[in-house]
Amino acid sequence: MTRRFHPSRIGRLFRGVIVVLALLAPDTPARAQNLLASAAADFDEPARVAPTGRGPEDGSKDRAAAKLAPAPASPDPPPREPARLPADEPAVELFPEGIEWGDGSIEAAQYVEETTRQVLPQAELRGQIDREIEARLAGIPRPRYLPVTDFSPPHGLLLYREDARKGDFPFALVVSGFLQLRWLEFARGATSWTNSAGTELPISNINAFSLNRYLLMFAGHVVDERLVYSFALFGTSNNGINTGVSPLGLAGWKFGPEATVGMGVLMVPGSREFIDGSPWTLGVDRSMANTFFRPGVSPGAAAIGTLGSFHYQAGVFNSIDAGGANVILRRGTSMAWAGNVWWEPLGKFGLGYSDMEHHADPAIRVGTTGVYSPNTRALPVPGFNPENTIVRLSDGTPLATAGALGPGSVVDAFDFRLATVDAGWKWRGVSANAEYYVRFLDAFSGTGTFNRAGILDQGGAGYLGWCFIPRTWEVYARSSAVTGPFGTGQEYGGGINRYINKSRQGRLTLEAIHMLRNPAQNILYPYRAGATGTAIQTQLVVAF
Asked: What is the pLDDT of residues 281-295, one digit of tens each?
């Protein structure tokens, strides 16, 4: 049997071809596309011919032979917005899914394509799709960065935050940190020094590149916006590139700006220059006197907060540094108590000692510190945390060195007391800062006979800075000294800071320091115990 196609099927096929060609032609005016579509629609209907009075068979033959009535010719309308067809033209239902043409409304669509089913020029069609995508993306949470301000460090990249007010589970995660890249050259001014036990030790030249400090911190809140946490991985290449990193962190309850109370591995707040933070120093690093006197890092519990123009950090810790925080090696139940308070009576002082932010009005900060640690372990070497320091005599000899306090004597434990006062001033790019230290060691226990019942050491550090091009170029001078029963050490020098793109988050520093009988030592600093010589340093700090 031979299957024949009905004329109506051929009509529908022809109509589909015309519609596709009309829509694909990018330069076809809207009116012409509408006419083509109308013609395609008419093709499927019976042809209109004059009545002849014949029967059905004759009529069907006439209809098969009849020609389509031509569409009336009409010139193209003047240019106008093609967003929708004119209301006075016949509506052609090309896409019937809820769309009414002419002045009718368009129902909400689930997909972008459904919102663009109009006969539009190609350029405007793409623009409408782009606008629709941008509008939908705007409602999706995305990471955003919170940079440093004149008075607070960068809050980092906010990766995720749920809005608890909308019934979401309370959670937030922020990533921040910094890198400190340094080149150090130390030219010795003497070949050796002799410690208080009578041992002669060599002084070496140094020429080295280092990733001096790196820190990656994760912080936020969980379960409740007041239950805050922070965790950081901290280390240096100065211990060798195969060494591990040291953990820092805190978890606690934030009552508001007035107080956050928590536990973790924290900096023991033993001096102003120490708790200001290493990314925000005026020069390459902290001073020799600060390195000598300050405590280190230890597990403990602390409270941090603000009461008006007063600020504080205080807590109780396992020890004055992480070297004495080893739980297995701890002896007794003694703890280290430390607190630092400061007052900013004229307004916010800003980060660090520099006035790179160029205060329009004078800013003042005054503060004080107190540390008390009874029965502190005397350690011959620092622990694994890079910021660890050990207690030394004023000539640089570690207190635990055999014979340091007399022939045959070895100190095993002692009481540690430290007090500091500090003051700072900033105005129009000029800054002046100073800190004074007093430390008293006594209650020595160990083996042998000690030639002293107590040791009093004093010292100070001072800085002068001038940001002569606001937020860009700064010169500074610095000096510090330590004095005590076993000798006196000094340093003095200065340098220049270049702030990249007028931000503290990128800073290049060139500095030169000359030191005499340096009593301090730490692998993060240019200080080596007993050294005399000159250190030249170049450093790039990137904080994020």
From this structure: 999 999 999 999 999
